[in-house]
Task: inverse folding
């Protein structure tokens, strides 16, 4: 099944099926954890595509291709890599806020409230008119019809949704809009001469990446590029809320600087960084950065040859194009949690999330794949490139692979063995202590992936590119 999924990605890069001869999969196939969705096979396929694209860039440097290998069990564990972190031997908590979750509504439906970020939590509590207390929230949600609450939460600048079945989602106008799109678009948006890769002894040596994304998907993209030698700088604002542990999960290999894009002087600093950048990755809702002069077209004029990677929740088309969303929101509205709850009920009844953050991490891997393909095209034909993708498009891709037969789901273990996790882990010295975490998954015969920098707190560095080696 993994090779079948990989074949859906080959045309994006213009590869033929002969490419799979350079690949070795190990670790078996789904189901590897308790979910009917093919999260393991999909993650192995996405990471294999990253490996192929890295190999192409290495061949551009050296004339040699590499053998690529991916362990599907390790790839599946990477879809919840934050769970396996230890700081100075203590487990790093990844618990969600207590009021975040699914609640029964007045009309017999279920409502999901995304409350991990304080601003989204405040929006939901304001709509419901209650304090931050799960019992109070339960009583308040029970007074609303689920669809009305969905719209009220979104209007209040929150995040969440009504639980739908997969059949209901298929009839939704936003699902139809997403179905009109490919999984990912790689579009030439400007002309410029072909560019050689900067000098160096790794596939992405000297390639500079600005990471203006948050939470998991976008930061995973930049982390993946850092694995192969790119210089990555995470840019965020000191005033923006964040979930601290996630920065240590996705921050491997990155510099991290603060800029306040509401301030003209900081915007000008960012533009100065862009002029020396190869990849600009952003995860704002469609059109948001355009109001600050940071649209794909504007930055391609500022830096001809730029690869601009754009992520959003529900794509750039359809009635929900500007809607806030996260992996869990996409799961909720598209029928994934409904199906997961049917097959794997827990002590508390109702819809359930699958046991990994599959859409988030898969989107990050696919963003990195798209960026690598665009960089390769830049070396061959020049130009500025837009890589465009959304969580909902990736959710549709994941669900489109079909489900594991129910007869094969009995007795699937919920966790990997301690020995496996230990074998997939490494340790890094960070400014806040010794961090134990999962290492990169992709195997490459000549340039095994590694991170040259440890994770650091947000804003740890000045917004200045280091000299290229």
Result:
């Amino acid at each position: 099944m993994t090779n079948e999924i990989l074949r859906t990605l080959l045309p994006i890069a213009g590869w033929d099926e002969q490419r799979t001869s350079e690949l070795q999969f190990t670790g078996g196939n789904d189901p590897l954890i308790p979910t009917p969705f093919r999260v393991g096979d999909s993650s192995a396929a996405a990471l294999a595509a990253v490996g192929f694209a890295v190999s192409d860039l290495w061949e551009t440097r050296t004339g040699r291709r590499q053998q690529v290998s991916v362990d599907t069990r390790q790839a599946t564990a990477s879809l919840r890599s934050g769970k396996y972190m230890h700081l100075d031997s203590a487990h790093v908590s990844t618990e969600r806020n207590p009021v975040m979750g699914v609640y029964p509504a007045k009309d017999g439906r279920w409502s999901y409230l995304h409350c991990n970020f304080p601003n989204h939590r405040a929006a939901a509590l304001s709509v419901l008119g209650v304090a931050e207390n799960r019992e109070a929230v339960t009583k308040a949600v029970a007074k609303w019809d689920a669809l009305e609450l969905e719209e009220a939460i979104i209007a209040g600048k929150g995040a969440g949704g009504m639980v739908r079945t997969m059949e209901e989602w298929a009839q939704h106008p936003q699902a139809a809009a997403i179905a009109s799109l490919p999984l990912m678009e790689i579009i030439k948006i400007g002309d410029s001469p072909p560019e050689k890769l900067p000098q160096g002894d790794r596939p992405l040596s000297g390639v500079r990446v600005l990471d203006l994304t948050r939470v998991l998907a976008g930061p995973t993209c930049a982390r993946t590029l850092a694995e192969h030698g790119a210089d990555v700088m995470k840019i965020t604002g000191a005033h923006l809320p964040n979930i601290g542990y996630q920065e240590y999960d996705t921050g491997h290999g990155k510099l991290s600087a603060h800029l306040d894009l509401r301030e003209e002087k900081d915007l000008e600093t960012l533009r100065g960084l862009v002029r020396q950048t190869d990849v600009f990755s952003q995860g704002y809702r469609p059109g948001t950065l355009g109001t600050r002069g940071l649209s794909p077209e504007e930055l391609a004029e500022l830096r001809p040859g730029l690869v601009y990677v754009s992520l959003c929740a529900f794509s750039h088309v359809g009635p929900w194009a500007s809607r806030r969303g996260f992996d869990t929101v996409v799961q909720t509205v598209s029928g994934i949690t409904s199906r997961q709850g049917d097959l794997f009920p827990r002590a508390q009844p109702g819809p359930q999330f699958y046991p990994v953050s599959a859409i988030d991490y898969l989107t990050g891997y696919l963003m990195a794949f798209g960026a690598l393909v665009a960089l390769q095209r830049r070396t061959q034909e020049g130009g500025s490139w837009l890589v465009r993708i959304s969580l909902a498009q990736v959710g549709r891709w994941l669900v489109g692979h079909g489900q594991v037969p129910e007869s094969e789901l009995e007795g699937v273990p919920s966790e990997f063995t301690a020995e496996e996790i230990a074998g997939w882990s490494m340790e890094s010295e960070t400014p806040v202590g010794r961090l134990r975490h999962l290492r990169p998954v992709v195997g490459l015969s000549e340039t095994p992936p590694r991170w040259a920098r440890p994770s650091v707190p947000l804003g740890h560095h000045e917004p200045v590119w280091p000299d290229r080696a």
